[in-house]
């Protein structure tokens, strides 16, 4: 196994080749395990620990990688003919696979530059300011698959419904917030959209003004006191119980320690 993995720049920078960051990471980890024949067979748990993610996510990503032609499933059998865990072969015509098998080198100090690199830079700039064509439902779906992950028919239907009930800026904002928080989950995105809808924040100006006010709002320290300044009942009750326990402990201690008369009698008996 090589001590490093050569990956072309555009494969890392382009967000259209893979449905999610988990899918990209699993593909690169498989490449790092592949031998000269392109075959890799790390377990689902090994992949899940390396990403990190759950084994269900690993299985889903492996299936989509097979469907897209990035990898091929290789069934394995023991010497008795029984099937064991599957292996995965990196397809030779993919960027990492071809570079690993070909053993090509790059002169020192010269970085690999893919022809699509300029196009990738334009895509990154577009992402910060969506064009009018990205404001439709297709643009939102592309943004979701790029930033959050694979979109299911159920999520697609819910996105379409929220698209009709709110506005494209609301959904784009929710996707960006989830990606920034590294919570790539549909329920999290949906919760942000629902909150913006309830607050009637439907335009970019309204959302930006609300975010600015929220950032500038002073943080209020939380206390256990109620509005009247009185501590809650459970606090008063625990305090009283603690005081009672301390009194009882003091009483038992005083009973166990002899007074001066008892001390004199003990000293006289010893003498």
From TrEMBL:
Pfam families in the record: DnaB_2, HTH_36
InterPro entries: DnaB/C_C (IPR006343), DnaD (IPR053162), DnaD-like_sf (IPR034829), WH-like_DNA-bd_sf (IPR036388)
Annotated spans, Disordered: 94-138, 207-256
Start-end of Polar residues biased regions: 97-107
Ranges annotated as biased composition (Basic and acidic residues): 113-129, 207-216, 233-254
PANTHER family noted in UniProt: DNA REPLICATION PROTEIN, PHAGE REPLICATION PROTEIN-RELATED
Protein's UniProt name: DnaB/C C-terminal domain-containing protein
Protein species of origin: Exiguobacterium undae
């Amino acid at each position: 196994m090589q001590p490093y993995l050569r990956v072309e720049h555009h494969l890392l920078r382009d967000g259209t080749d893979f449905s999610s960051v988990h899918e990209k990471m699993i593909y690169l980890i498989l490449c790092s395990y592949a031998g000269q024949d392109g075959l890799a067979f790390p377990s689902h748990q090994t992949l899940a620990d390396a990403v990190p993610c759950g084994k269900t996510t690993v299985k889903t990503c492996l299936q989509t990688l097979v469907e897209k032609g990035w990898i091929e499933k290789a069934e394995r059998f023991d010497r008795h003919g029984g099937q064991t865990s599957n292996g995965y072969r990196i397809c030779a015509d993919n960027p990492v696979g071809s570079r690993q098998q070909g053993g090509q080198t790059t002169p020192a100090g010269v970085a690999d530059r893919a022809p699509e690199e300029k196009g990738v830079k334009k895509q990154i700039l577009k992402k910060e300011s969506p064009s009018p064509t990205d404001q439709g439902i297709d643009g939102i779906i592309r943004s979701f698959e790029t930033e959050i992950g694979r979109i299911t028919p159920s999520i697609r239907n819910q996105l379409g419904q929220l698209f009709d009930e709110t506005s494209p800026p609301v959904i784009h904002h929710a996707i960006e917030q989830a990606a920034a928080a590294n919570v790539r989950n549909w329920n999290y995105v949906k919760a942000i959209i629902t909150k913006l809808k309830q607050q009637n924040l439907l335009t970019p100006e309204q959302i930006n003004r609300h975010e600015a006010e929220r950032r500038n709002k002073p943080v209020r320290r939380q206390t256990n006191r109620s509005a009247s300044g009185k501590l809650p009942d459970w606090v008063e009750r625990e305090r009283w119980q603690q005081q009672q326990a301390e009194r009882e402990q003091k009483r038992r201690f005083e009973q166990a320690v002899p007074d001066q008369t008892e001390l004199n009698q003990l000293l006289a008996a010893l003498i």
